[in-house]
Write a structure and sequence with these properties.
The complex is a heterodimer of chains A (114) and B (107).
Chain A (H helix, E strand, L loop, with lengths): L2 E5 L2 E3 L5 E8 L8 E6 L5 E7 L6 E3 L7 E6 L4 E6 L8 E7 L4 E2 L3 E5 L2
Chain B lengths: L3 E4 L2 E4 L5 E7 L7 E6 L6 E5 L3 E2 L7 E6 L2 E6 L8 E7 L6 E2 L3 E5 L1
Classes of the chains: A mainly beta (114), B mainly beta (107).
Chain lengths: 114, 107
Amino acid sequence: EVQLVESGGGLVQPGASLKLSCVASGFTFSDYWMSWVRQTPGKTMEWIGDIKYDGSYTNYAPSLKNRFTISRDNAKSTLYLQMSNVRSEDTATYYCTRNYGSYWGQGVMVTVSS
Amino acid sequence: DIQMTQSPSLLSASVGDRVTINCKASQNINKYLNWYQQKLGEAPKLLIYNTNNLQTGIPSRFSGSGSGTDYTLTISSLQPEDFGTYFCFQHNSWPLTFGSGTKLEIK
């Protein structure tokens, strides 16, 4: 059974950094592109970016490219999202997904507030 | 960036109705269009991938069609468990983009 489990969310202050993790199981992690998607409190879905199966290539939403970094550790079957200089508009539920949304994690909430 | 215009934003229908939800892309997305269902408090679930391919385990009352810039999700006979929000998603070209969602209410 494919499972994706995100962690690392919580309440953070504006300007801080935060790193989310997503542990995968039930499939060969190193065979798949992986993505991060977020959903705002108003339910808007936003694709953040993705990473090639070997970690050699990434794509990002242009508005997030300078602050967010996606990486992976195939030995640990783990996907990461490094968020820097967070803003109130980054408040959302963050999901990791396998390739183009075939499977989703349960999501992790990030709240940016002072 | 490719803009995805999804309609309607709100849909109220009765059990047994045929329901259609539309997504229009701002340019040709070559059928790289997925549909998701999301229920309150849950992660989205893939229903249809690449326009018309039913994901494993999804009931056959769900179907997808379209080409070029225009795509449709159809539920042939609405069931009570089909309430929720539906999203389209294009993965033809980066940055990938979602539609704004359709909230489906059961009358």
